[in-house]
Amino acid sequence: MLNLERLKELCLIPGISSREEKVRQSIINYLNPEEFFVDKIGNLVIKRENHNKKILLMAHMDEIGFLITSIKENGELILRKVGGITDDIVQSRFIEIITENGKINGVIGSVPPHLKNDNINFELVADVGFNNKNQVLELGIKIMDYAVFKKDFYNIGNYISCRSLDDRFGCYVLEEVFKNSDPKNEALFAWTVQEEIGLKGAKALSNEISNLDLVIAIDSFACCSKQNQHIQLGRGPIIRFFDNSGISSYEYSNKIINIAKKYKIPLQVGSTGGGTDGSIFVDKGVPFVALSVGVKYLHSTVEMIHKDDLKNLINLLKAILENSCKEK
After folding, report:
1. 171 with 27: CB under 8 angstroms?
2. Closest-CA residue to 278 (of 267, 269, 266, 289)
3. Rounded distance, CA 285 to CA 294, Å?
């Protein structure tokens, strides 16, 4: 049974790259682990020992969003994109500005068709309802604060939809596996930072954790491009075998396929763009496998995943840990 209220809670927490502290604290509060550490840049790591292979499971906490880089005299906030945000999803959006004192509602506007012929161009700024800089400063908004798209969480048929399912679904999956598995491995669980701006949290973590046998990165799989038309949402999680950052271990991918067959868990194999945290560890001599669920409309305000894929990914990860990934 999926705990959709917990997934919703994780998705609705704001947290762009380098500002994941609210997400991290929520995970700590929810799991209440006996032992954990947070490194200097904010990666959270929890260990469960059972003295066998050492497997690291990872998911990233950060989401795409905006940093406030300047405040204009007319009260508009100049924004800079953080992570992969295409121009066609930006205009006419409600946003939340996250300050030290709380959230402030705002909008990113658009140029109305009536003014297109006047050569007025769209500018990436936020409007918080005041017409001068001093009023905006009095709200507590300052440079280096950040903004996220206003988020809602919907059940739509067999799917759930929300901005920031990438990769809060992965954070949720790790929580569920941590709570409900009985690993035969020495399993480490890591919730990482700054994935959306270049896998930076994973790079730092790869220098801090040694003697790993396998890294499994949990992240999104963009559906549906020409290269992965065989992938069907609802037909199981996906081994993200090849993307722009690396190639999942052939040996361990086959072992995971065999575990899935043993437990009758549906599993797909595909390639996509982008990259995952796991690929960073190859440079340290550690094999990795990227496991995903298919996501419709990735990096948009209406990301969608199939509930059955989410359940089966949790079941697959539990089976991997409990079987020590030894199947031939």
Report:
1. yes
2. 289
3. 28
Q: Which of 224-238, 247-261, 296-310 has the lowest mean pLDDT?
A: 224-238
Residue 305: enclosing H or E segment and its boundaries?
A: strand 304-306
Concatenate the DSSP letters of all residues of 30-51 into one string: HH--SSEEE-TT--EEEEE--S
Q: Is there a contact between 24 and 42 (Cβ–Cβ < 8 Å)?
A: yes
Instruction: Tell me whether strands 93-99 and 146-149 are parallel, antiparallel or unpaired.
Output: antiparallel
Report field, pTM of the whole predicted structure over 0.90: yes
Judge whether residue 326 has pLDDT over 90.
no
Q: Residue 106 falls within a domain, yes or no?
A: yes
CB of 272 closer than 8 Å to CB of 258:
no
Amino acid at 195: E
Residue labelled with tokens 């880089």:
69
Domain boundary residue, one of 90, 124, 149: 149
CA nearest 57: which of 258, 256, 303?
A: 256
Considering the domain architecture, whether residues 179 and 206 belong to the same structural domain is answered as: yes
Among residues 69, 46, 48, 68, which one has the least CA distance to residue 59? 46
Average pLDDT over residues 289-302: 95
Per-residue pLDDT tens over the stretch 200-249? 999 999 999 988 999 999 999 998 667 778 889 999 999 999 989 999 99
